[in-house]
Amino acid sequence: MLKRIKLKVLLSGMEFVERHPLLVRFLLRPLSRMPFVSGRLMVLFKAFAGHTAFEMHYVDLERGRIGIGGVEEILFGSKVIEQMHKVLEKRLSEEEKYEALYELGHNLCRWEVSTALESGKWAPGVLVPLIRNSTIVDDMRSDPLLARFFVRVMGMVSRLITDEGGWGHLEFEVQSRPLRVTLSNSQEAAWLGPSHKPVCHLYAGIVAGYASAISGEELRAREVECRAMGAPACVFEIDR
Fold first, then answer.
1. Total domain count, the chain
2. Do the beta carbons of residue 212 and residue 219 sit within 8 Å?
3. Nearest CA among 139, 228, 126 for reference residue 179
4. pLDDT for 26-60, tens place per residue?
5. pTM of the model
6. b/e map of 69-89 (b: 16 or more CB within 10 Å)?
7. What angle do CA 47, 53, 55 make, to 5 degrees?
8. Given CA atoms 87, 92, 93, 95 in this order, what sign does their dihedral have?
9. Domain limits at 217?
């Protein structure tokens, strides 16, 4: 009962903010930028108040580091995606290359999402158990309220990590069987198309890493539609 009350309160707040963009623009965003307020707000609160990932990144010039909410990052050009494929295909069989790219994406994204949620700087402690638990996959399929809440939260997390990180835009269909994730503007597909088969192996790993970090179990993703093959977007299915 207490869990559903928390869900309703948090979801109502998120949806209220989404319905009132002028409130965000003229009140929440200026207020959240005030020094004595900004330093106390968590990443997701700032995001819902209209901040972009670039506004929230910190730069440590002495150490040569950049990050957001306790998650350190390295910025690189999109051509690195193409070069990962090119270099690995010279040294590995096709299947080994696909698995290596998948594992790389999976491990990196699982680490990033886990670190963000565990840092204590992205979301309050009361929020984390609502979106990260071992029954989340099954619960979302039977509970529309939880599904709506999860889509709102993960939509904002992916906005900061993927959209504003230049990786493309993710959308989650959490009540489908299997779970489906749609990726618009895949960098892998852009560099490696046209192709007669799916090419987004790194992205498939990233999607699986997202899901595995949230559920705490090992989930697998496979690309069933690919923009490199002429599809309007790349679609991944996730299941145990």
1. 1
2. yes
3. 139
4. 999 899 999 888 888 999 999 989 999 999 999 99
5. 0.89
6. bebeeeeeeeeebeebbeebe
7. 95
8. negative
9. 2-239
